[in-house]
Task: structure prediction
Amino acid sequence: MKPACSYAATHAASLADPAAFWLAQAHLLPWHTPPTEALSRDANGFYRWFRDGELNTCYLCLDYHVQHGRADQPALIYDSPVTNTRRTYTYAELLDRTARFAGGLRAIGVGFGDRVILYLPNVPEALIAMLACARLGAIHSVVFGGFAPPELAVRIDDAQPRAIICASGGMEFDRVIPYKPLVDEAISKAIFKPAHVVVLQRDFVPAALQPGRDLDYQDLLQAAPVPAVPVPATHPLYILYTSGTTGRPKGVVRDHGGHAVALRFSMAAIYNLEPGEVIFTGSDIGWAVGSSYIVYGPLLRGCTTVLFEGKPVRTPDAGTFWRLVAQHNVRVMFTAPTAIRAIKKEDPEGVLARQYDLRGLRHLFLAGERCDPATYDWARELLGVPVVDHWWQTESGWPMLATLVGLDDMPAPRAGSAGHPVPGYDLQILDEAGQPVPAGTTGLVAVRLPLPPGCFPTLWNDDARFREAYLAPYPGYYLSGDGGYRDAEGYTYIMGRVDDVINVAGHRLSTGEIEEILAAHPAVAECAVLGIADELRGQVPVGVVVLKDGQTIGEEALEKDLVASVRHRIGALACFRRVLVAQRLPKTRSGKILRKTLRQLADGEAFTLPSTIDDPLIIDEIRGDLQRRGIGRAFAPDQPT
Ligand code: COA
Ligand code: AMP
Result:
């Protein structure tokens, strides 16, 4: 049911009495045991939602719809130009496969509370595996396929999965990426060893199976179907790892109950989608956006989701997203600004878009990184529909700022702004002392506790880090790590991270982690990694390194070594391609590297030298070095005008 309320009234009600507001939303779902209590605190003092409720997310996503007239409706449309495949699964078909696969998982010992890591591209079998884990009360953790074995190994050791489900490989443009050898390498590096690896064999890249440990995905699908197990609302549905400010990723936990309530609400209020309508989210199931709006949100709402295996360009061309919209009757499309920039670069006049009938599209939603106004305006003019930039994080799992097109009296979206606080979020901009700042003043973006349902209740195995990283800095608030401001009319602008996290093509990376890798090179004395502006990807990391005394390695040879190390340790997705050797790094007198000043220098931004700088002359040296290597917006020879 679509909430027939004004935005202002809905937002106010959600803050005035969060428990009553969300309990009413919760009662719109088919619980096994409906909750009587909305909000409580656990032994750590952390907020928990719907503690005494029981439900199962897989049941809500599949069984419920099959039982209520949607058995023959398409649930999932798989469209893969890279493998030249298109397949549609009805709700009944998806349920059948999921229930069987859950039976197969149970037969190999996966049960309630067990972790299962998934390392697959955007294929239907990945969704089936996610839903099958949910069905058993097992906890899945999808790891993005672009991560290298050491990153996968860290996640294996943290999650300690009973099984890993992987594809034999994926397809990047026309290049085959074998995944199975990466999984084998990760397992050999990890201390914890999963009992089984379930392999989805793809005909273009068959993988060798290790007898005893490895199983064929199709064999598990032969099992008898099993029913959904009711689980406590607070039971984890999944863990999704995201970059923190160190080399150790954070395992964001999502629970069954709050997640289902929040996503169902968002599908109606934010995206204005009715059951039976089609959404296409151009992301990857390894990111929060994909998990929430390729998989769970659409299925919870009884919508049809388009699962796309490919890229916005060159698979086969920059019209591929528009073909999906036209051919699959897409009402709402969601992607990252990088994807739109990539399309715009290859088809600036929108010639390909005009080949398709896009009249069915109602809205384009963007998130994952700041959307520059030029990209925003281009998309809006091309598509002739409202473009909604909205802001969220892996931690929240659903938007915190948006234009809620399903509510009445919503102020229209504006280029550069991520909109207004979503119901449930008491968003504040704070100064360094934790005091709210006046309109127009930039500060730290924070949310007053309690966070609404759907947001992470803690980090996997690390309550202390949850408290220290997010809650302790400003008691009573969740600190997002982003900076921004609110204007006099209430529009909020997210301006970027205030910590050591950068955003590369909508992917979140830790500069601290890259620095750890560079610093491990025998020739490197010290280093700084900056996220500098990039026309396509928003930001890309660049290393500035100082050599140890007596080191004679050439700059290009060192760059090659370091680029290879980052690729090997983190993965190609880091897009780490440039290294600058400097004589010294700019520092404060107390020895802190002035990373922000370096980044501003590379981006050609005006900046004031901190009064605490040790030696201001270093800035001129580095400016000369950047120019010499053509690194940075201010110095690149092919810099766009
Ligand atoms: N598996 C294996 N490798 C992967 C991968 C995956 N799932 N995803 C990316 N990579 C590799 C790429 O092949 C590339 O490798 P290369 O350096 O050997 O060429 C590298 O990681 C960088 O990838 P990417 O930044 O994606 O560059 P690209 O040239 O392949 O594509 C875009 C550029 C803009 C088309 C692409 O970044 C894109 O579609 N962005 C949309 C962003 C998005 O969906 N974000 C999700 C958050 S909402
Ligand atoms: P992730 O957890 O990978 O989804 O990344 C979350 C981060 O991406 C946020 O902390 C922001 O820095 C950035 N981000 C996401 N959406 C937006 C947006 N609409 N505008 C600006 N930044 C965004």
